[in-house]
Amino acid sequence: MTKFARLRRSGALPDVIIGVAMVLLAVAMAMAIATIKTSPGYAYVGPRVFPFAVALFLGLVGMGLAISAFLGVDGSGSADFPDTSPGKPSPTMAWVVGGLVANLVGLALLGFVFAAIIQYVMTARGFGSRRWRLDAVCGLALASCAYLLFSEVLKVNIPAGPVLELIHKWII
């Protein structure tokens, strides 16, 4: 039996195909990013750095997925995952989509940081976490770092929300 037939029989062929497609997409992204014009004012970090990092990460994940599927590593034996077979509906998608909707609604009302915390907690809950306080603290740390990076370093206008606006007024 050929390796291709074994991949089809084991059910790993879709993972190999998706992994190879991710690598090809990463190569196409890198080729497109290379055409971005930069001005001589950029010393080291220009408009190509972050897109190249994303393309590199996408390519590495695609290679890892394709290689692990090709070698027969399915990754399902080490962790205790909930049963998501068709007979038992999983609330994961509802929690994740609900988190996205809450982020969209909360962005205007609460601001970026608090909307992102709610989305983080809901997404973590969808993937099985029951420790919402720890998830909220992790979400606060990640959202605060992202907010500071985008608003203060990159000067992107992100809605702060009423709480952060009060904090800005107290500090300044």
Automatic annotation (TrEMBL):
Regions that span the bilayer: 16-37, 49-73, 93-120, 132-150
Keyword Metal-binding: no
Annotated InterPro entries: DUF1468
Pfam families linked: TctB
UniProt domain DUF1468: residue ranges: 17-159
Highest taxon of the lineage: Bacteria
Protein name: Tripartite tricarboxylate transporter TctB family protein
Lineage of the organism: Bacteria, Pseudomonadati, Pseudomonadota, Alphaproteobacteria, Hyphomicrobiales
